[in-house]
Amino acid sequence: MTSHRSRAAVTALALTLLLATPATAATALSARDAAPAAEAASTSASLLELPRPTGPYATGRDTLHLTDTSRRDPWVPEAGARELMVSVTYPARPGTGGRPAPYMTTEEARLLLAAKGLEDTVDAPTVAATRTHARSHAPAARGRFPLVVLSPGFSTPRTTLTGLAEELASRGYVVATVDHAYESTGTAFPGGRVLTCVACDRVRETGPEGMELVSEGRAADLSFVIDRLTGRHPSWHRAGVVDRERIGVAGHSIGGNAAASTMAADPRVRAGINMDGTFADPVPASGLGGRPFLMLGSTADHSPGGDDSWDSGWPALDGWKRWLTVDGSGHFSFTDIPALAQQLGIEDPGTPISGERSTAITRDYVAAFFDQHLRGIPRPLLDGPTPGNPEVRFVSP
User: Are 198 and 19 within 8 A, CB to CB?
Assistant: First the structure.
């Protein structure tokens, strides 16, 4: 176990990363860079597009508004019951459905850009209109598919994991991507409400303990989502395609910590992934019941010695496990952000890996992990370094 001091230091570093909300371009633009970025944004209107999924299935997407009446919202108790917005991306019948599902609303994009100081250099409608590949209202493909629940980084909306969700759905997974109320720069809820990051101010006030509470609260959220997708009276009308015995959880940043927190509390979850997230809520000393877990992070921050919570979390993991780092990656390399920033002409000198490579690596290793541990398909990609992925290091502390 890490000491209280080391845990506090690690979580303070996480707060610096997370509360800076670098959620649009993964870089701070200098005045010198602002004009080229503005020009790129103005000339690329309607051209932003998520990378095309590579799996054999067409994909569909539905949006759910879920309310957990058993809990009050932890950040705004006077708001009443805990609310979640969930995008469910799933294998669909080819050639069906309506238009491509929307990426985000213009107001969500505006708030996201404003949080990073990019509202004057990147066009919010351009970001909102990013082309996705899942079709709205498409009938589900025949069969039953494993369920993967995704949780985004703190202050970052669920939309930034859309590309990963579409990729997994195209490979035969039902993917539920969750927005946790009052924990993002802005999330649209029914009734014209856009809820902003009240939790950000609370976490600044409470320090490391606040981030631990975020992860624990998200674990309750994710278990509730699993309830609503696998229970006797599910909230999703296509829930019959979900294989209730094959459930995984993954997340980025604090969402990755929440994956472990969910596994610690919910035995239904068979496998989990933490993408570059500090374990503010530590991995239990008793482990995760022998279930598999993947730690996938940036080399700069999550090599041994870079994050004490990974150093102490690793020996506590008591099942199949891998610790992988990606050379040249940054904190947001495991999201949609690098691919969209590349199209906007925005570069981060501190993150030399391209959006194309970071997308391909994230997709391949996340899918390989769930294929092996939810579907029983051996994936040699997870056995050790490969010539085709020289950026990926297998860590052996």
Answer: no
